[in-house]
Amino acid sequence: MAATTSAPIDLSAALQLAPTPAADWLVILPPALMIGLGAVLMMLRHRIRLHAPIAIAGLAGLVLIDALLLWRALAVGPVTMVMGRWLPPFGIAFSVDVFGAVMALVSAVVALAAAVAACTEIDDARLRYGFFPFLLLLMAGVSGAFLTGDIFNLYVWFEVLLISSFGLLILGSEREQIDGAMKYAVLNLIGTTLFLIAVGYLYAVFGTLNMADLVLKARSISGAPLMTLSCLFILAFAMKAAAFPVNFWLPASYHTPRVTVSALFGGLLTKVGIYALLRVMVMLFPLQLEELSLVVAVVAALTMLAAALGMLAQNDLRRLAGYAVIAGIGNMMAGIAVGSVAGLSGAIFYALHSMLAMTALYLVIGRAAALTGEWTLSAQGGLYQRAPGFAFVSLALFLAVAGLPPFSGLWPKIVLVKASLDIGAWWLAGSILLSGFLVTIALARVFLLVYWRPAPGPQAGEGTLPAAAFGPILALGLLIVLFGLFPEWPLSLSQEAAAGLIDPAAYLGSVFPGGGAR
Length: 518
Fold this sequence. Notes:
Layout: H1 29-43, H2 51-76, E1 79-82, E2 93-96, H3 98-118, H4 124-128, H5 131-147, H6 151-170, H7 175-206, H8 211-220, H9 226-241, H10 249-253, H11 259-284, H12 286-291, H13 293-313, H14 317-338, H15 341-372, H16 383-386, H17 388-402, H18 410-422, H19 426-452, H20 467-485, H21 488-502, H22 505-511
Antiparallel strand pairs: 1-2
Helix pairs in contact: 1-2, 1-5, 2-3, 2-5, 3-5, 3-11, 3-15, 3-20, 3-21, 5-6, 6-7, 6-11, 7-9, 9-11, 11-14, 11-15, 13-14, 13-19, 14-15, 14-18, 14-19, 15-17, 15-18, 15-20, 15-21, 17-19, 17-20, 18-19
């Protein structure tokens, strides 16, 4: 019989014994709030008139929480909370720094705008089958991905947002939607499988999945297959971000659901892939990223140029918008390839701009189609006469997407071009400028055909533009104008976020206050 002992057990090596500060609970509140409200709406599935008010109120609360998180990250630095009071790296960590907080905040703004726009577009059948619960669960996945400090849970949150996006993609069960969903599902399944293989390989090598612990161990372990891991992660995240040559799934699927869903996807999903690429490669494997920088730069140039040419070739507005999303991904990857603080800050700034601009672009083309009754450029026309205010806002948005002054798309492109020239990558800077020129021509063509020329024939669209539909477009447009006229704040946030990725000392200190893993 084993002897018993009354000696006290020292739990301080494994558990956080001090109470968790109340402010630290903010770190886990965004995904928890979205999951909770999503569950409430599922229980109220027969009372669909309550869905929109509850979802919009919840998303407004999410904007407020994320704003508080960003304020706290700016005021005190990165903040970490570990589930179950376990000390890292044993427990599941949620860590918020400036990068994660600003991405979460802008994503919440985009989701709120899309939820308001959905009130005029999503019919009762789609509401009954769960549009708003899917939207909230999608935001749970997006928020969790931006705030997690554990790479396996980054994979889990990817799965949450992907499952929710599948639901949104097929709402309505139209033939075109099912076809788009199959392409979307297959390519994302391949990317997810690669991600999971990389995570399993990572755990086999390092014995940990906490990101801060991985940073410390990657510095000290020699001979680890870091290049193999880096290639797997880059390929997986490039597929999710729709980078060349694995980008064909996006324009083949984003045009099939309701335009509000396309706006959410275009604004958010590919940016989560870019976020993961930045977080994992810049913070965990910077040396390997530097060795692969030429490959990433070539992929970036091909992505933005192929997408710009794709925009010129399109007659369907929804497919054109899909290629605009891909062109932006190329710009962001160019900043990642450069790898300097300037390059990374340009990529982050461009991601923030693209989240707003791509969402607004899809909402604009959706309203244009509603007014004309057509989706194709050849069948549309006359919108300037019918809705001059809407035409003015659309023109401003097109200029912003093209990267022209005085809107938000100008400044990150300037930063990216300068950062490319600073390292002698003139061809990469030239690709950014050429892509912007081609995108400008493509969007000028849209404005001339859809807005400026007379309608080519009778149109069966709506007679007026509902205020609830125009409001989100105007709100996003105002943010784009403010970012363009006063770029100092988003640029300083992007620079601080980039500096935190390159030198994660503050991030590591929030996870391991004692200076290292136990």
